[in-house]
Amino acid sequence: MTIQKRYGKLIGASLGPGDPELITRRAWSALQSGARWLYPVKKAEESSYALSIVERGGIAIPTDAVELVFPMTRDAEILAKAWARAAQQTVELLGEGRDLVFLVEGDASTFATFGHLARVVRELVPEVDVETIPGVSSFAAAAATTGVTLAEEDETFAVIPAAYGVDVINHLLDEFDTLALLKVKPLVDEVLDLLEQRDLLTTSVFIEKVGSPDERIVRDIASLKGEKVNYLSLMLVQNPKRIRGELRRGCRKRKEAVEVSAMVVN
Ligand SMILES: C[S@@+](CC[C@H](N)C(=O)[O-])C[C@H]1O[C@@H](n2cnc3c(N)ncnc32)[C@H](O)[C@@H]1O
Question: Are the beta carbons of 36 and 101 closer than 8 angstroms?
Answer without folding.
Answer: yes
